[in-house]
Amino acid sequence: MINSSTFHEVQRSAAADGKADYFRLHRYRFADMLAAMQGSPGASVLEVGVTPGHFTELLVRSGFQVTGVDLDPARRQTLWARLGVTVHQAHLEREPLPFADGMFDWVVFSEVIEHLVYSPLPVLREFRRVLRPGGRLLISTPNELYAKSRLRLILRALLWQSLSTRAEFRHQMRLEGEARYTTHARTYTMAELTWLVEQAGFKVLQRRYEAPWEQVGLEVDRLRTHPLRFLVKGTFAALTAALPPTRSMLLVVAQA
Q1: Which N-terminal residues, if any, form the signal peptide (predicted)?
Q2: 100 conformational bin, left if phi > 0, alpha if psi -120 to 50, beta if neither
Q3: Alpha carbon distances (Å) from 106 to 95, 119, 132, 233
Q4: pTM recorded for the entire structure
């Protein structure tokens, strides 16, 4: 069971850090991930892609021993120092992880795999290397078959438009160097994601369709302040509740 007081403490910490909106958008994702890791008190966790650090803080406050890896950890160094977490700088697609074999009980790889430019298989194999025998990998990533995204693509195709908006196209074309990792390279279906995990030598233990994004904006007070938006979001939430493969997020837990 997730400790609600811990969750509220991190929510307050995010607000004090000027990141209340980010936490509001991602809090259901964090809850889904913590639920998938229940029953592992005191476990050593390598979190890959830690910025802005909200889930890192949730892990620390929940009793996990956390080490981080990030493309640019220096931006949040004050937070890592406050949490007592060492965050290593590493470029996953260019260098091995800076750890010995079999060091961790868990590797958490949340909302990162979709940003990788090349095949994620070498990265996943590195995760297996640094996990102890029987250790676990948790991956979350946007669902390629999310109902809202699919309907948007269908609508744009029917209107004979590019599948990307003009703003999306121009934003992506201006990205150079490391900045390209700030946008999605590709998203995955559950079958594709589990195939990749198994190809890297893992045994898939859980494959879950979660709905964190659908819940954002369905708070009771939003019905009064944004009734039309509430009804539209409620329609999509009802659709994905009835059809799990159309939900917004894939969550996979696998064993080394």
Answers
A1: none
A2: beta
A3: 20, 22, 9, 34
A4: 0.93
